[in-house]
Structure formats: C-alpha cells, structure tokens
Amino acid sequence: MDIRASDEDRERAIDILREATSRGYITLAEFEERLSAGLAATHLSDLDPLLADLPGTPRPSAGWTVPSAVGARTASAGRANPYGGPFPGPAPAPMPGGQIVNSTRGFLATLPPIARVVLTVILIGMVASAVVSVLSSGIWIGALVVFLCVRRGHHRRLMA
Asked: What Cα–Cα distance (Å) separates residue 128 from each residue in 97, 118, 122, 135, 136?
C-alpha cells in the first residue's frame, strides 16, 4: 500500500535536497528539478527517486530510515543528520581564520580586528580631510558672516 506524503514529508525531502546541494552532491539545476518534483509528490514512494542517489539519505517509503550499510559506514564520519542518519563525509570547512560566519552578525563584526582598525583609520582620515578642506577654502568665513548678519537683523526686529 502506498502511503500519501504529508507537507512535513515533502519539506523534509526538500531540506535533504538543500543540504545535498550545499555539499555539492547535486547541481543547482538538479535541485530545481527535484524541488518541483518534491513539491508535486503525493505519495512517499514519489519522494524516493529524488533522494535515492544521495549517499546516507533516508528512504521516505521505508519510514525515513537510512539503509544500514551506509549508516554504519558513516556513523563516525560527518555531522548528525536530523533527517534519519549521519551525512557522509566531513562537515563543511569553516571560513579562513577558523571562524564560521554567523549570518545574523553585521559586516564589520565578520572582519578580523585589524581590518576594523584599518577601516576606522581610513574613515577618520576622510572626515578630517573634508573638514580641513572646508576650513581652508574660506567658505566657512562667508557662512559665519551671513549667519551673524541674519541673526543681528533678527535681533533688531525683536527689539523694535
């Protein structure tokens, strides 16, 4: 008897396909094809072909269990797979410098401390250069004179 696939079953299969794409087992074009087939699946057996050629993945029609030979072979290698067994191979390599970038952190927080210092010095230099440029141009003197004249005129109108 063929059991119907639930939304959770389809989402579970799509999550496995996403992981397989990020690990390089399937291309983006293959992912898109399998994604559309996965969303259209009505029975668990429709999901099996989408995952059959991916190592260490569960079989939906078998109750989402991983074949025992693959599960035993990769039990110590790789990270835990919340979808039925371990993913084969090592976990993805961290970013250079040993840090794994957290997407919730801002751009500056992901930079090494020396890069943040260099960017800060450059920014301070740019602001200082702009201030010196304005002060040396004489424009500020004209602006000050206009400001004082307008203020003095405004003061005289209030006194009258």
From this structure: 33, 15, 10, 11, 12
Predicted TM-score (pTM) of this structure: 0.44
CB 44, CB 5: distance < 8 Å: yes
To which residue do tokens 């999550």 refer?
A: 15
With a CB cutoff of 8 Å and minimum separation 6, the contacts of 15 are: 83
The span from the CA of 158 to the CA of 151, in Å, is: 11
Domain spans of the chain?
7-73, 107-159
Around 4, how many Cα atoms within 13 Å sit in the side-chain half-sphere?
2
Over the stretch 108-120, which tens digit does the pLDDT of each residue have? 677 788 888 899 9
